[in-house]
Amino acid sequence: MITLESDRARLTLDPAFGARVTTLWDKRSGREWLVTGPREGEASEAAQYGGPQARGWDECFPTVAACDHPAWGSMRDHGALWGRPWSVLAHGPVARTRFVDARFTVSREVALHGATVTIAYEVANDGSEALPWMWSQHCLLAPRAGERIVLDGFDGFTADGHPFDWPRHPARDLSIVGVASEGFALKAYARARGQVRAAVEGEAGGIAFAWDAASIPALGLWLDWGGWPEGDGVHQLALEPTTAPAGDLAGAEAMGAARLLPPGGTASWRMAITLTDPRADPA
Question: Distance (Å, rounded) from C-alpha 20 to C-alpha 70?
């Protein structure tokens, strides 16, 4: 386990299990922001991602949901990276980790400065064929009922293929965190425009994700107020910076949003996560 610590926060990651970030602790509020729990899951192509696996902060590449693709074959749920060992390149003020496959390499650098985590990514095509891909950060948060989801710089919201105006969805006001007994779950997407910010805000502090739409052009929004998995729902939220507003690589390709990395090519992108102070009036 690797731990990064500042005067404001503590972050721990597990290189042997997908370089998963397992804790993001706000020292000022005494709050753990991630869904925590023991390791669940295994490294095979048959691995399933369900309620027991849904915790912490994973990276999804080259797909999110399971799908078949001519360039990749059958891909497992949440992609090739989660639950599999990464190598540690550096561990000091920053944590540099890398996942190496026969066809590609994914590198991630995580640094903690005060209340802000900065993350830099790079993917390289090490093979002889062009690789289509998508990426999504899968950071499962543990929000509290009544807190607010605040989205700045987004438009083109859709859920289940249907457009809607944030936060007014036919089912409910999506900006208000629900209770676990609600039995509600929804995956939505939006386009990012310019410098964007996606945040949870409340009386117990907040967390904000920020990035540039030029490199990360979309947001995935996972709301689960006890509605998934069926019969054993959990309470969690994910604000997901993503390269495509799609559930899997096949879907991203169908809408023209998949990326293509030529042989020997690289792609890189950056973002930041900041712990914010409590608000007296979260509304």
Answer: 28
- Any residues with CB less than 8 A from the CB of 147 and at least 6 apart, and which? 176, 177, 200, 201, 202, 204, 206, 282
pLDDT tens, residue by residue, 79-109? 999 999 999 998 988 999 999 999 999 999 9
CA–CA–CA angle 44, 185, 119 (5° rounding): 60
92/125 Cα distance (integer angstroms): 28
Please answer whether residues 117 and 110 qualify as being in contact, where contact means their C-beta atoms are separated by less than 8 angstroms: yes
Three-state secondary structure readout of 130-197:
CEEECCEEEEEECCCCCCEEEEEEEEEEEECCEECECCECCCCECCECCCHHHCEEEEEEEEEEEEEE
pLDDT at 24 exceeding the cut of 80 = yes
Cα 177 from Cα 158, distance rounded (Å): 19
Domains of the chain: 2-276 (2.70.98.10)
